[in-house]
Amino acid sequence: MLDECLSRSSQSQGEPRVFAKGHILTIPRNALTLALRIVGLLMAALAFYLMLGVIVGRTASHAAHDSLVSFLAVGDTGKKHRVFASLLEGQLAVSGDLAAEDHAHPVDALVMLGDNFYMHGLRREEIVDRVATNLVYPYCRFVQLDGSRSAEVSEACPVDKAFLPKRPIYAVLGNHDLGSPESAALQQDVVPEFVSNWSLRGDVAVVRELGQGVSLIMVNTEVRPLRAKGRHELARALEASEGPWRIIAGHRPMAIGKEGNAPEKFDGSLDFEAWVAGAIREAGVHVHLYLSGHHHSLQVIEGGGELGPDLHVVVGSGARLRDIVGDHPKRVFEAPELGFGRVDLVAGDGGESLEVSVFQSPVIPLLRFGGPKRVGQWSLTLQGDLIRFE
Has residue 8 been placed in a domain? Predict the structure, then answer.
């Protein structure tokens, strides 16, 4: 009987056979083809949905608020992409949430906290591909493409930018950005030819005035060695900043080192914490917030005293993760998760305050549903008083 069935099946114009409990079931080839096409269409639709989330953004879930000045911050983003990046690449999960947060509550700037191009910085022979892959495609909502070479990367951002606000992208160098001798100069001088609102300087410190009394001091934490001259340059930048709200942004954290509980020494006599704290004391100004990356996680540390700024926020998980090490005595929040930060100057009944939010993103874009997840929020008064919102 079975041989007879096999014989008849072999004559049935090659239709696929499925074996079940000793019987042979025949599935019409047209039905199988249709099923495969439906699956393919569903996968294509999912990929398009995730790509749209990266480019345009979806509505975030938390309540709206009125900001006088605001910006988003993220670090350690420039990892080379794998296959099926729109489904599996961590950078695109975070950048999609950045776009969603900006869509819900537009910001005035995007701040990139270094390690913009892994693993060895930017090289001239690959600059078009790396700028398109690690900058234009992920941050399509934020980039301006009216530079002299923007046409070379514009296909990575197929969106009409007319309805989107123009705002700067402020960036600093990270240690991986110095892996090739030409990388720093390429990021400073050539990347703006592709992305016209990209702004990175290799100076020790550069002041960016955001308006409404908010000064953003971008620090090159990769200066070697740490000498008094560099500290004086940072102090002069702090003195020149208008304030009264001052935020330092750099790649390496000021409050923690490689072991999680000690500042990093870059030469035999001066550690980074002392270098920055000395510049703040020399300038005689109040610094409210220190933003950094380098550690591939989300961390918040209370400052003040020897730690200088009132609050230290690490958002160095813009593309990949590492475990949090050490047991810092003043760490008030930690999460080994992908994510980013947001800073808002808001006006309330009690006066102005600086609100700092930390957002967690999924490890891959495939898991992006419901908008970015805010996992912590802190508020700073002008005098430096700190409040955490649960």
Answer: no
